[in-house]
């Protein structure tokens, strides 16, 4: 393969602070509210608003690690950079980086299927959960692919416009729902089954963490952000704060409209169903339109981030690459791989399985990030050890609860997850074995101080 094909075309300073915040919130809100509200409520029951709040706390501890490293070493494809500095040129680095990339691709399929599910609420179409949902999902993925081909300028512009529209629209939905209910939560309090399960609640928190993990999109943008040493951290904190406010507003609005039983029944299109009792059919139409905007922009930003992360992994010689005769540079190739994989996921998995698999991959990778920084980088980046260990403990707790729940309810998806991890690790060992020392394969520069 020619060197030209292995090069990327990152543009330093091409993303402003506002554009970066819009991109981060675009990924989070696109998946978090519309795709996950019902999924989280299924496990956390009446306590699902608290699950979103606790997930924000966990994500804030996680963000500390990424901010500390990114402030000192801003880089496009930042998560791969963090892993490389912590674990060097190893199978652990390659496996965890690919797990993060896969969790982002899974997120894309989650958002795409959510787009299809909500769009069909506008029509009295038969087979709403049949072939039409994956068909619409694949159509949205192809749209995101075309916009990404246009470059950062168009992505930033679209992200800013859609961020304002969807956040304003979602807050309008929440405000109207709360006002119509008179700030009463009689619906949620009238649920027939209010039994609390700590394991179920924590499993719900694990899924809710997916609603915030979009902040890693900002880390992956790295030195494409203007003044990255300052703005990457600011963008992450601003994005998390905005999303927390939006999520809590919507959670309480949904609680005022639907019982838990109704919410779980309509879990794939929960917000549309929640708008029906208080706002009528026009409210449903309004909510679906906002969902379409939110999911489309969320997918657009996610495709942008994961394709750049895969490009960096290729440049670092951590994963194999073939351009299969495609013209252009590496970023265009990884963009194609990203949309193909996300389209396949959208076709073959439903929302519940997609969310669970994404949470498993993300949380395992996140634990590896925190441990690597604690063990090898905390002195270099001036990070506090107790915060890193707290982040590990929180991730491990919610991951364990999710695995317990899914091992009973859907053991197949747990098996798929762990088989995939073992397969990726094996491929990485084989691939890296004969490539250490090649041009472009650099061992970690850090001293691995304890």
Summary tags:
single chain, 450 residues, mainly alpha, Amino acid/polyamine transporter I, 77% helix, disordered C terminus, membrane, cell membrane, APC_superfamily, transmembrane helix, APC family permease
Describe what this molecule looks like in 3D.
InterPro entries: AA/rel_permease1 (IPR002293), APC_superfamily (IPR050367). It holds the Pfam family AA_permease_2. Its main location: membrane. This is APC family permease. By secondary structure, this protein is mostly helical. The chain has a single domain (3-8, 17-433), classed as Amino acid/polyamine transporter I. Helices cover 77% and strands 0% of the residues. It has 17 helices and no strands. The chain has helices at residues 3-6, 17-44, 48-72, 78-87, 91-119, 132-150, 152-180, 186-189, 198-209, 215-221, 228-257, 260-265, 270-315, 330-348, 351-381, 385-409, 411-433. Helix 6 crosses helix 13 (270-315) and helix 13 (270-315) packs antiparallel against helix 14.
